[in-house]
């Protein structure tokens, strides 16, 4: 009897150590023709589904210890293996879709509400004042905002202009004009990336919950609208709701505006030359009489950056750009503008030549130094924290 108790105690400890419940063992043993029963005293014993002769019970216990041990080990491994597969399934789902080049992924676009939130933002009352280039320069100096300091400390002063200074056109020194333009665009680009970053973190929090609140469901529905996602396709939303490298943003703004000197930039805060067919916009000089497109105009520079990011994150022409970005994310790599810019050949009619120019601007001006820069909080944001 004592031997039986010792044997059973060993089995019980083994089960507890491997976190195997009695119910799971009962089910497993039943498949093998065995069953766990209780005697009149409440003691648990292992018996055969048929009649087991009590005289052989002691020796049977010893045999079962050696028989069950490898079975329990395999059962535990299978259980752990299943658990890992279940946990990693959602994480690997997007990577499988990317590897399989799923044709349905990130293809369909609902355009009705794409820029609705941006237009509302741009129409908000604001104190948009066009500061002179001299005033802006003094503002940068008084706050010790220099590109050299940003490259060293990776911190950007939260100075966001609403309109480009007219005098930027008159800055003859090309390096001075370029640095001045970068200082203006840098805080705007980082701010928009921060907005997307916060949305992306919230998206993952919502997806990781087994049950979402009404507020969370409403927020998710608004993001499906903003990114033109149909059928509540979460994989597509993950791909579209992501940041654009700062160096790429600055390079494209520089290329499209001639470092802030173009008519579109000066008259309509149009930093990225986006087209519109709605009638609102600036008509290009020399355009054909029957041409219906215009360049989008904005009241504030921030709206232009918002629209640019939304364009890259939704338009079918930049699907390969988003796919490449998603692959970098899945491989836990940084968003590299030189890699991602390879997929912007459809942004301009010059195609691959346009890509080469962008990459040249990025390299010559060391723009990738700003990709990991952080935006210091503004006084308004600080006030909201107190």
Q: Quick gist of this model?
A:
The protein has 16 helices and 6 strands. It is mainly alpha-helical and 386 residues long.
The biggest sheet, with number of strands, parallel, antiparallel or mixed sense and barrel status, is:
2 strands, antiparallel
Poorly predicted ranges:
42-53, 75-91, 382-386
Q: In angstroms, what is the radius of gyration?
A: 32 Å
Order of helices and strands: HHEEHHHHEHHHHHEEHHHHEH
Q: Going across the major beta sheet, what is the strand order? A: 1-2
CATH architecture label name of the largest domain:
Orthogonal Bundle
Helix/strand structural class: mainly alpha
What's the helix count? 16
Average residue pLDDT: 80
Number of domains: 2
Q: Overall 3D geometry? A: globular
Distance between the termini: 71 Å
Q: Into which percent range does the helicity of residues fall?
A: 55-70%
- Output the CATH class name of the largest domain: Mainly Alpha
Number of strands: 6
- How big a fraction of the residues is strand? under 5%
What is the CATH fold-level name of the largest domain? Lysozyme
């Amino acid at each position: 009897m004592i031997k039986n108790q010792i044997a059973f105690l060993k089995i019980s400890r083994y089960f507890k150590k491997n976190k195997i419940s009695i119910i799971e063992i009962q089910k497993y043993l039943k498949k093998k023709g065995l069953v766990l029963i209780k005697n009149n005293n409440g003691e648990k014993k292992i018996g055969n589904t048929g009649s087991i002769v009590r005289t052989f019970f002691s020796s049977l216990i010893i045999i079962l210890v050696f028989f069950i041990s490898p079975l329990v080990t395999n059962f535990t491994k299978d259980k752990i293996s299943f658990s890992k597969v279940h946990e990693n399934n959602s994480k690997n789902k997007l990577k499988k879709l990317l590897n399989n080049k799923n044709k349905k992924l990130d293809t369909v676009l609902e355009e009705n509400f794409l820029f609705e939130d941006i237009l509302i933002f741009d129409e908000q009352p604001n104190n948009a004042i066009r500061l002179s280039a001299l005033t802006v320069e003094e503002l940068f100096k008084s706050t010790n905002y220099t590109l050299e300091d940003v490259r060293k400390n990776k911190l950007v002063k939260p100075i966001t202009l609403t309109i480009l200074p007219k005098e930027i056109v008159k800055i003859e020194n090309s390096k001075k004009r370029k640095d001045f333009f970068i200082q203006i665009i840098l805080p705007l680009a980082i701010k928009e990336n921060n907005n997307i970053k916060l949305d992306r973190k919230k998206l993952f929090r919502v997806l990781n919950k087994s049950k979402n609140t009404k507020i969370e469901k409403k927020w998710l529905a608004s993001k499906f609208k903003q990114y033109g996602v149909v059928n509540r396709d979460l994989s597509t939303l993950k791909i579209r709701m992501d940041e654009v490298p700062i160096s790429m943003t600055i390079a494209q703004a520089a290329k499209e505006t001639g470092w802030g000197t173009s008519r579109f930039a000066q008259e309509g805060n149009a930093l990225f030359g986006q087209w519109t067919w709605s009638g609102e916009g600036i008509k290009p000089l020399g355009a054909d009489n029957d041409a219906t497109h215009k360049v989008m105009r904005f009241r504030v520079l921030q709206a232009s950056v918002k629209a640019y990011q939304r364009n890259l994150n939704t338009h079918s022409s930049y699907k390969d750009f988003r796919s490449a970005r998603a692959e970098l994310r899945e491989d836990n790599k940084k968003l590299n503008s030189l890699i991602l810019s390879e997929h912007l050949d459809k942004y301009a009619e010059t195609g691959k030549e346009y890509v080469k120019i962008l990459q040249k601007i990025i390299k010559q001006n060391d723009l990738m130094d700003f990709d990991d820069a952080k935006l210091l909080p503004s006084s308004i944001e600080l006030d909201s924290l107190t």
